[in-house]
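Reopening this one. Same input as before:
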Amino acid sequence: MKNPFKIKKEIVSDDIFNNDLELPKSEEYPDEEVIFKVKDFEFYYDNGEKHALKNINLEIFKNKVTAFIGPSGCGKSTLLRCFNRMNDLIDGNKKEGEILYKNTQIDTLNTIQLRSKVGMVFQQPNPFTMSIYNNISYGPKCQGLRSKKELDKIVYNSLVDVGLYDEVKEQITHSGTSLSGGQQQRLCIARCIAMAPDVILMDEPTSALDPIATLKIEELIRKLKEKYTIIIVTHNMQQAARISDYTAFFMLGELAEFNKTEDFFAHPKNKKSEDYITGKFS
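Same output, byte for byte:
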């Protein structure tokens, strides 16, 4: 077996991150372009003691919302964090198989480039303790952008895209932490899209929000898929049915079923999926 801890040389390639790069088509869903392909993927924690993901084969399609659902501890958040290599920060992880981004193995890609194009929104809103303006401009500044005119444009467009501009335009110099929970989460999404990502990963982005704020985030997700590919982990099956185009159902580290969302909920192929949907287990 190959050494899972062997450090691979990372390549810096602007070509791979080019939005005009032609993507492969899915064999099962020929109308869809594949932005991520997971092949025979295994993931372990604790130096191989905990087998979190088992033989995962999955495609993620461009400009679609894919929902990851399943009971707690089934591996959905673990897989989500694999797409931008966040799990690489955890000591003692081990992985086998491949995850391809635009047909290139992500372990060979520069992590800074990868994470700028595969952004992350977490369960709890986590705005920086700085102004709303600086929250959004921070990433572009870190990438070397210094033009005030360009930064203003990015901040404005990002706030407009998340439906927050009219709510905060008079408070742009106020701290991001002064906003409500729902506004903070939309600010975090604005901070993410300021980096012009291809993909946005969302790990239960509405679980800490009230119903009204949740509705706004769901409406935002439906709008954002026009520009971005979105993968969302959610415990809320109704939310998955409302906002996603495809649903992946996980059980005990395995991908039990993947299908178009309307087909998954109307005609589940797997008995485990049917039991989960009908509430026979959770």
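So the earlier flakiness isn't reproducible anymore. For the record, The longest strand covers residues 34-45.
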